[in-house]
Design a protein that fits this description.
Cyclic Phosphodiesterase, Chain: A; five-stranded antiparallel beta sheet; 234 residues; alpha+beta; four-stranded antiparallel beta sheet; 29% strand
């Protein structure tokens, strides 16, 4: 957990001046209907207890910066592993969906659920993120099990091709336009810098076909699996 704290802290140090000085990287594709980037992801959606607290934080930001992109409550999620990173033009017809679903379910048969403590926020050059602190041993075991299973199955994947996922954050806001008031924005970010958003119990995972932003209007669930009850408390 100390490694994650250091990583999140460094992200904040590296990028917070972009928020303070109104120089964040703007995402031009958020509302672009011609954006055809699609992929396959293993994820877990949030439950109401964590969703509600994050939504309260986002509601405060919306008053100050209404034109940014805020993840809807029901689209907040924890990415476990990107099986196929979003690629322009990728379609479900490109793969054997049943084969991917079978590997997904078979891998999870002996995996226990786990908990993720969401506390504090950090930033990237273009996003505001909620910091997640899981039982790293269990989450790493889950991710590595999926990596091994898909590699053995010799199915097409792009696992770890962009970077090897190591955090448990969730993206809550994406920069869509320059800020109206960086000072007020910084005030709210500082207020929630170490805020306790609650604990997510990860007992159910989904394999989904998705776009870059995990919009539910595009996301298609390919398979779901209930994990064994969590034995770990964080």
């Amino acid at each position: 957990m100390s490694d994650l704290k250091s990583l999140y802290s460094q992200m904040w140090i590296d990028s917070i001046d972009k928020f303070r000085c109104n120089t964040c990287e703007i995402d031009p594709l958020i509302n672009d209907s011609t954006d055809l980037r699609r992929g396959i992801t293993v994820l877990s959606y949030f439950d109401n207890s964590v969703e509600d607290k994050i939504s309260t934080f986002l509601d405060e930001l919306k008053i100050i910066e209404p034109e940014q992109y805020y993840y809807p409550k029901n689209e907040l999620h924890l990415t476990i592993l990107s099986i196929i990173s979003c690629i322009t033009g990728f379609k479900l017809s490109n793969i054997d969906v049943e084969a991917y679903s079978s590997i997904f379910k078979e891998t999870l048969k002996n995996i226990d659920g786990f908990k993720v403590k969401y506390k504090g926020i950090t930033v990237s050059p273009s996003c505001i993120l909620i910091q997640g602190f899981p039982d790293e041993k269990q989450l790493n075991h889950l991710r590595n099990s999926l990596r091994v299973s898909f590699k053995k199955a010799k199915l097409d994947t792009t696992i770890d091709s962009r970077y090897k996922i190591s955090t448990a954050h969730t993206t809550a806001v994406r920069c869509l336009t320059p800020f109206r008031n960086s000072n007020n924005l910084m005030r709210v970010l500082s207020k929630y810098k170490n805020y306790d958003f609650g604990t997510l119990e990860v007992n159910s995972l989904e394999l989904v076909f998705n776009n870059w932003y995990q919009n539910l209007s595009i996301t298609k669930s390919l398979s779901s699996f209930e994990l064994k009850p969590s034995k770990i408390y964080v």
